[in-house]
Structures are given as structure tokens and as C-alpha cells.
Design brief:
Elements (H helix, E strand, L loop, with lengths): L7 H38 L6 E5 L7 E6 L9 E4 L1 H9 L3 E2 L5 H5 L4
Parallel strand pairs: 2-4
Antiparallel strand pairs: 1-2, 1-3
């Protein structure tokens, strides 16, 4: 019957072995479910990506160095979200537009 050993000691050994594996699988499932739950909570708590960001220079009170479209991968860590009007004003004041995400084109800035 299903290639199982006929004697009781080996059958008990197999049952112990498979019970151990079933427990490990259940633990792996629980861990994966927990990770997924944490990922969903993190996504729900994450702030929305701003439409526009300005990258800031080094140091306290440093002037802006570059304007980006929100979510631009080339934006540095020192950044803050800005409004459309602030982005246009920054470009008009001579702050450089990112050459990768082209916020000036997205904004329709011709200056």
C-alpha cells in the first residue's frame, strides 16, 4: 500500500518526520503571511508621492539645487515636497531642472 514500510516502528518514524515537516511548513506560511500583512500596513501608512520635489544643498539653510518630478530616482536624500507654483518659481529663480525627469517640460516651463 503506497510503498510504506509494513512495520510499526518505521511507520511511527515516518509520521514523526512528516509531522515535523508539516510544522515547519506551517511556520513558514505564518511568517510569509506576517510579512505580507506588514507590507500592506506599510503601504497604507506611506505618504503619497508628491507631484514635485526640490533637492536641497548641504548644510542648514542651504539653497535648493535641483527641481524634480515627484518620485524621480535621481533625486538625492535631501529633498522636500513643493507645490506646482513653488516648482515654477524655483525654476524661474534659476534652480536647475533635473535632466532625467525633466520637470520643466512637465510643468510647461519655457523660461
Amino acid at each position: 500500500m503506497y510503498d510504506l514500510p509494513p512495520d510499526l516502528p518505521r511507520l511511527h518514524t515516518l509520521r514523526t518526520w512528516y509531522a515535523m515537516w508539516l510544522n515547519r511548513i506551517d511556520e513558514a506560511i505564518a511568517a510569509a503571511e506576517q510579512r505580507e500583512k506588514e507590507r500592506l500596513v506599510g503601504e497604507a501608512r506611506r505618504l503619497p508621492t508628491p507631484d514635485w520635489i526640490v533637492e536641497l544643498g548641504i548644510g542648514a539653510g542651504a539653497p535648493p539645487t535641483e527641481v524634480h518630478v515627484g518620485g524621480c530616482a535621481m533625486a538625492g536624500k535631501r529633498q522636500r515636497p513643493i507645490t506646482r507654483e513653488q516648482a515654477l518659481a524655483a525654476l524661474a529663480d534659476g534652480v536647475r531642472a533635473c535632466e532625467h525627469c525633466r520637470p520643466d517640460t512637465e510643468l510647461g516651463y519655457l523660461g
